[in-house]
Design goal:
Distance between the termini: 35 Å
Largest sheet: 7 strands, antiparallel
Shape: globular
Structural class: mainly beta
Strand order of the largest sheet: 5-6-7-8-9-10-11
Number of helices: 1
Strand content: 35-45%
Helix content: under 10%
Number of strands: 30
């Protein structure tokens, strides 16, 4: 024991003295983070692709920033890590220039632990660099770009999840993001839940509004502020849509989509006592409650997005707890199988090849190139960990509980 103690003393004594760092006040400045995994997936709030380009996909995540694939979804890279925010609610790629991307930060699926965003970002080089073009704390659930002019874009700003703020509603830029104007607002408790541009006539824009308030222990969805609006002059003026087949009473969350192949066909998912899927066949003048199935609104605050096949106005997809699909204009719906995870939030369909799609869900992304007959799910390291712990083994193990994905444990030197 004496020899061991002496050896320890000698080893310690022979270590070179560490010079003092008088100007360094941060004792952890030299430490660097590294990814240890796991590649288990995680919640993806929105997805996008480039029309006619089967190699490029984007995925925005609840707390992992923005990810991009340039090889058809096989491998992915984070392209937003240099920015000061990781909660992302929306993304839109300009149809006229795929180098132009708008990102709305702040996931708008407002769970009790949702993280706030800090405004809107823009890239003009396909995600290599970013500019912070609008600064405001809160959640942004939808971005939409003018189909013929990448300088014009709309943002559905939900606003603060946990309290009131006046900076809510629909915002528009007409100068490539340098300035943003609040073109439609309701009140400090109501924000925009969705915005949809008619690609055949971009002067026509629909917007859903949602009065909601989140607390860590509760959720209030609905109030007199919720509603559906339309602009027919590019967002300068707006008309509230009421009656004419739309439900009476208090509304909650509203999702809306114009069919790209038929401007007269508009769909709206409306949370209400007699809510469900509403369809207009005359551009929003009159409406029919085409389907009131509970599967379309069972957790409206967490879902309520609509994707219409760009070439077929009767084929509609509804990301919900399961993925739902209609091929008869919403009259009937069926579950779509083959996904590696449930709790779906978004679906993008390639206008140039509608058989190619990407889906975002609580487990990551699923991609199909055969119209949904088969799907493959690349594993992404984007899990949200509720708790993390370590043990005393060598190398020590890291363990934690993930949102919707169970638990995981891995060695620290992985």
């Amino acid at each position: 024991m004496k020899h061991l103690a002496l050896l320890a003393i000698l080893l310690f004594a022979t270590q070179p003295a560490q010079p003092a760092q008088p100007g360094n006040k941060d004792p952890f400045a030299a430490l660097k983070y590294r990814l240890v995994g796991p590649y288990a997936g995680g919640r993806v709030s929105r997805v996008a692709g480039v029309p006619g380009d089967p190699s490029t996909y984007y995925a925005t995540t609840a707390n992992g920033g923005v990810w991009k694939s340039t090889n058809g979804g096989v491998a992915w890279q984070p392209i937003f890590d240099s920015q000061p925010i990781s909660s992302i609610g929306s993304i839109a790629v300009a149809a006229t220039d795929p180098n132009v991307i708008y990102v709305g930060s702040g996931e708008a699926n407002i769970r009790g632990n949702v993280a706030a965003g800090n405004g809107i970002y823009k890239s003009i080089d396909a995600g290599k660099t970013w500019s912070h073009v609008w600064k405001q704390e809160g959640q942004i659930g939808t971005m939409a770009v003018h189909p013929k002019n990448a300088d014009i874009a709309f943002a559905a700003v939900l606003g603060h999840a946990f309290g009131p703020n006046p900076e809510r509603g629909v915002y528009r830029t007409r100068d490539g993001g340098r300035t943003w104007t609040q073109v439609l607002k309701k009140d400090e408790n109501t924000g925009a839940s969705d915005v949809s541009i008619d690609v055949n006539n971009p002067n026509i824009v629909f917007a859903g509004f949602w009065q909601a308030r989140r607390t860590p222990w509760d959720m209030t969805s609905g109030g007199p502020g919720s509603g559906l609006y339309v602009s027919r002059d590019g967002g300068d003026t707006w008309k509230p849509l009421t009656g004419s087949g739309l439900p009476d009473g208090i509304w909650g969350k509203v999702g809306v989509a114009v069919a790209p192949s038929d401007s007269s066909r508009v769909y709206a998912l409306i949370e209400a006592e007699k809510g469900g899927l509403f369809r207009s066949d005359d551009g929003g003048s009159s409406w029919t409650r085409i389907n009131g199935h509970r599967a379309l609104s069972q957790r409206a605050w967490y879902y309520s997005t609509i994707t219409v096949n760009p070439r077929n106005a009767n084929e509609v997809w509804f990301p919900q707890v399961p993925m739902l699909r209609s091929i008869d204009g919403g009259k009937t719906i069926k579950e779509v199988d083959g996904f590696h995870h449930g709790d779906h939030h978004d679906l993008w369909i390639d206008p140039a090849d509608p058989k190619r799609m990407i889906n975002g869900n609580d487990g990551g992304v699923d991609i199909t190139v055969d119209g949904g007959k088969t799907w493959f799910a690349p594993r992404l390291p984007i899990s949200q960990f509720y708790h993390v712990s370590v043990d005393t083994r060598v190398p020590y193990r890291i363990a934690g509980a993930m949102q919707d994905l169970g638990t995981a444990q891995l060695p620290s030197n992985s």
